[in-house]
From TrEMBL:
Enzyme Commission code(s) on record: 6.3.5.4
Protein's name according to its UniProt entry: asparagine synthase (glutamine-hydrolyzing)
Keyword terms, alphabetized: Amino-acid biosynthesis, Asparagine biosynthesis, ATP-binding, Glutamine amidotransferase, Nucleotide-binding
Pfam family, one: GATase_7
Glutamine amidotransferase type-2 domain: residues covered: 2-214
UniProt keyword ATP-binding, yes or no: yes
Database matches in CDD domains: Asn_synthase_B_C (cd01991), AsnB (cd00712)
Catalytic activity: L-aspartate + L-glutamine + ATP + H2O = L-asparagine + L-glutamate + AMP + diphosphate + H(+)
Length: 596
């Protein structure tokens, strides 16, 4: 797990090593264990390293293989790197390290861009070919590892974080009105390739981008689960019990894969079903002395701020080395400001602050953790999925918008200043277009495909990456193992919707977990002080939305802002998020990144 950056020029000039150095330095927290720069003519690569596999300097990056004429930088982990190394050795390749980075470079030499189809893991990488001058960028199937890009006629730059690209300079920072529409409508999700800034784009997940020396760019999407019953014919006709066993077997493999490391691996234990299953399966594997971590906050607005009762129960049941972290209210405000600064893009969820504080504490004990993100999107655990069941396909987009969108398109005229309105319902059209794509047997299948490939990538997955990497902590997500996702996509929807959602997962867990954990009400990372804005948090938001920077930018309708500030807890989005926080967070992020 690391941070990577680079530049390739198309105008005959040498790469700007100084800019790549600034981008690399801006990602120090992602890789506190080492750094490197490399350049050759029009190309420069930078890297910040977090030592997880092969702790020696032989695994340092950028990694140059002069014999093969390749130089690469890599962020992530190839969980099957040992198997791939043996396969490549059998084909005559010799290795000078025991790192997964070297496996990636040699796999690229052997298979070219198709190497991604051999990888099991999370990854973003760049490989430069000396003899052709070609640069290849790649991103994992579920977009777990980020890749931001800024391109003009003269050059292309890329980095693991958006602020790193800003540090390099020369990036357009106007507000992208389509992205703003998504942010204000699509529950703060801005789908790839867009970001909130016009000058920065994201490499989509499951995509390999080939950049020729002259500047021509081609993209190839190499993976998309079809969400059809016929996708995995070997599972046709399974009973519900057989589906439970198939899911449990696949999850076992996913958890086992994510123990690959040369350092200890812990677990973020919320006490919910998903993280508890990870702990149970590690115990089943014979893991002893497993470090687990839970976080809680003081209650506010009549809302509890912790779920320690459940995490303590699981920790006792499996005998883990458990760390219960209760955050004092005095730490929340500075943590909030640091969390905003750590965001590659504005992210509204108050989970960000919880993950940021949790990562700060966990990083003092371990460098790698497994986490339960993704199970709700993959196994239909959220409240907006049951209303999709049985709907005619042509009604799915409207139903999804009613359940999930923060507000209808027409309401934006009240929220945004006229200069920032799009005129068209770009978020609604995005969803309609996505749900109408071929594949997906039912309306619910189409919605799950949308959430798995878009919402999951640009909300919870991004949130976990940004907040953990702010402290050089690598988070691994077994529920996003691509083979488990493929299996879940083929699973009959009624099995996923059973028992109030994630039915097949709940039934699979009954051999492993206490019933109190399985059948408990759905939980989340509660941060009551942000859901119920008051005191210093309200003043922070008020200052952000009424200060000189906000007035100069003029994003929001002034009367609407005043109405929210007058009653900060009364205005909620469709799913209950604080509407004032949504506006305030965007302005706080723009100011934290120095966007004027």
């Amino acid at each position: 797990m690391c941070g990577l950056s680079g530049e390739i020029r198309f105008d005959g000039r040498a790469a700007d090593v100084g800019a790549v150095g600034r981008m690399t330095d801006a990602m120090h927290d992602r890789g506190p264990d080492g750094s490197g720069l490399w350049s050759l003519g029009p190309v420069a690569l930078g890297h910040r390293r977090l030592k997880i596999i092969d702790l020696s300097d032989r695994a340092a990056q950028p990694m140059v293989d002069s014999d093969l004429g390749l130089t690469g930088v890599f962020n992530g982990c190839l969980y099957n790197y040992r198997e791939l190394r043996e396969e490549l050795r059998g084909e005559g390749y010799r290795f000078f390290s025991t790192s997964d980075t070297e496996v990636l470079v040699k796999a690229f030499h052997r298979w070219g861009p198709e190497c991604v189809e051999h990888f099991t893991g999370m990854f973003a990488f760049a490989v430069f070919e000396r003899d052709t001058g070609r640069l290849t960028l790649g991103r994992d199937r579920l977009g777990i590892k980020p890749m931001y890009v800024a391109q003009d006629a003269a050059r292309l730059r890329f980095a693991s974080s958006l602020p790193a690209l800003l540090a390099g300079g020369g990036v357009g920072t106007d507000i992208d009105r389509v992205a703003l529409h998504h942010y204000m409508t699509f529950h703060s999700v801005v789908p790839a390739e867009r970001t909130i800034l016009t000058g920065v784009r994201k490499l989509p997940p499951a995509t390999v981008r080939t950049v020729e020396a002259g500047g021509a760019v081609t993209d190839h999407c190499y993976w998309r689960p079809p969400h059809t019953r016929s996708a995995l014919p070997e599972y046709a006709g399974l009973t519900s019990d057989e589906w439970n066993e198939a899911v449990l077997d696949r999850l076992r493999v996913a958890v086992r894969r994510r123990m690959v490391a040369d350092v200890p691996v812990g677990v973020l234990l919320s006490g919910g079903l998903d993280s508890s299953m990870i702990v149970a399966l590690l115990a089943e594997e014979g893991q002893e002395g497993l470090s687990t971590f839970s976080i809680g906050f003081h209650a506010a607005g009549g809302e509890s701020g912790d779920e320690f009762a459940y995490s303590d129960l699981v920790a006792r049941h499996f005998g883990t080395d458990h760390h219960r972290i209760l955050v004092d209210d005095t730490r929340l405000l500075p943590a909030l400001e640091r969390a905003v600064g750590a965001m590659s893009e504005p992210m509204v969820s108050h989970d960000c602050v919880a993950f940021h504080l949790l990562s700060e504490e966990v990083s003092r004990h371990v460098k790698v953790v497994q986490s339960g993100q993704g199970a709700d999107e993959v196994f239909a655990g959220y409240s907006w999925y049951p209303p999709m069941a049985g709907l005619p396909r042509e009604e799915a987009a409207a139903a999804y918008a009613r359940e999930f969108f923060d507000r209808p398109h027409g309401a934006l005229a009240e929220v945004l200043a006229p200069d920032y309105l799009t005129g068209e319902d770009v978020s609604g059209e995005f969803v309609r277009r996505h749900l109408a794509m071929p594949g997906a047997d039912t309306a619910l299948d189409a919605v799950l495909r949308l959430d798995t490939s878009v919402m999951l990538v640009d909300d919870p997955v991004k949130r976990v990456d940004n907040m953990t990497m702010a402290y050089g902590l690598e988070a691994r997500t077994p529920f996003l193992d691509h083979e488990l996702v493929e299996l879940a996509a083929a699973c009959p929807p009624e099995l996923k919707l059973a028992s109030g959602g994630k039915g097949v997962l709940k039934d699979a867990s009954r051999k492993l977990l206490p019933a109190e954990v399985i059948d408990r009400p759905k939980g989340y990372f509660p941060v009551p002080a942000i859901r119920h804005i008051h005191g210093p948090f309200l003043e922070l938001v008020r200052d952000a939305l009424t200060g000189q920077a906000a007035r100069s930018r003029g994003l929001f309708n002034r009367a609407y802002v005043d109405r929210l500030l007058a009653a900060p807890d009364e205005h909620r989005t469709t799913l209950g998020a604080n509407a004032l926080w949504q506006l305030g967070l965007l302005e706080l992020w723009l100011q934290a990144q120095g966007v004027r």
